[in-house]
Amino acid sequence: MNIQTAAAARYAKGSVILHWLIALLIALNFVAAWVAEDMPKPEKMQVMGNHKAIGLIVLALTVFRIVWRLMHKPPPLAETLKAWEVALAKVTHAAFYFLMLGIPLAGWAMSSGGSGGKPVGIFGLFAVPALPVGSDKPTVGMFHEIHEVGATLMLVLIAVHVAGALKHRIIDKDRQALLRMTMRP
Fold this sequence. Notes:
By secondary structure, the protein is mainly alpha-helical. The protein is built from 6 helices and 2 strands. It has helices spanning 3-8, 13-36, 41-71, 83-114, 137-171, 175-179, and strands at residues 120-122, 126-128. The chain has a two-stranded antiparallel sheet with strand order 1-2. It starts with a helix and ends in a 6-residue tail after the last helix.
């Protein structure tokens, strides 16, 4: 593959930045949720406040990423992919977008209902108003369940995504697959 063909097969720099920034924020949010579980309540509330803020940032960046993707066509998939690999890649990416929207929305709704309509602070810079959802226990519980099930599905998708990338690099010996989502020349 020549340099021009390799460059054409890569994602735009904006796509790469959004991919890795959102991935980092999602990873931070998983760590925050896990760490907060065993903390005393005051510390837990602070960590979960950061978790909520990061979740809303992920939501905003995902909306921006969708708009970006509509304006910047992704590079074509490798011609060497089998039909099942193409189908799995498309389903996985669609599921990622669904969850990157749905998990933060469910968390925001859960927080809105559980806090009695208090806004969510974004690192003390500004506040995002609560969603107009019910504050009854069944409603808050439903959003909590959606949030947790979505997070579990996200972990499964991340594992599938990473396994796919490693399969292309190690088994298929495709050096370009991983380079598509980097800014290396």
